[in-house]
Amino acid sequence: xxxxxxxxxxxxxxxxxxxxxxxxxxxxxxxxxxxxxxxxxxxxxxxxxxxxxxxxxxxxxxxxxxxxxxxxxxxxxxxxxxxxxxxxxxxxxxxxxxxxxxxxxxxxxxxxxxxxxxxxxxxxxxxxxxxxxxxxxxxxxxxxxxxxxxxxxxxxxxxxxxxxxxxxxxxxxxxxxxxxxxxxxxxxxxxxxxxxxxxxxxxxxxxxxxxxxxxxxxxxxxxxxxxxxxxxxxxxxxxxxxxxxxxxxxxxxxxxxxxxxxxxxxxxxxxxxxxxxxxxxxxxxxxxxxxxxxxxxxxxxxxxxxxxxxxxxxxxxxxxxxxxxxxxxxxxxx
Length: 334
Known about the structure:
By secondary structure, the chain is an alpha+beta fold. It is built from 7 helices and 10 strands.
């Protein structure tokens, strides 16, 4: 009996910064910096079917089109490395990342799948190889295959534009969802072509974020995240944006961050600020008063367990269905 290969990938909580930047050659690249969040993730199990055609692939639950494409690509890459003919197999996915909120659910599926396929061949692919396969499977991906500090990542090319430092400053994040948590169809968003002034503005934010990481400056990081979120409203247009930034200002938060491809958002606090727990409670009450559902309060300094509000995400599989039309799963409310 052929043993199953397994793989795992985490999620994130949207972006701190996203825009268009210049690479080392001065070429424009779409790029992003994600906000990490421990806890939810995707798990994949892959069992090869030697002797079967590569298209003989079963995916459970059905409808995970991007993960299926990732499995085919990963099988081809791993079969070539091990000098074996590519084959089909069975891919099983489980996970608890809400879909459609901009938390990297599809990328997590894809990366977990690639890792499971590689494991079934006894291989461990480099992060760069995983990134390239992920981009081929879904056209753009989040940097969830990378371990370590924050990076500016070219999501459409699967490469790191800049390593920003060893770690983000510690943050307390009050998570919430905008637009009632409805999924955002990024393909249906209006086209937006940045001009030279936009690129200069994003490069300034990149410089400020680099400084915030180097100095551990939560206030500066909050300014960058808020400015990036504000620029993103040119496309997303969340009606609650002004209310969210107003709440952040009134409760003494460092700023806000919003997923640029979804509805998840966060109010950012400095955990070392005086009275931070009181500020967080005021923030939760204000969100409720404005009809903005709070989801999960977490800290980026915690990597193994949540210390602010106990367990969330009950480990229920996401609903099956096509990648872009699965009903929106929600983070459990506090």
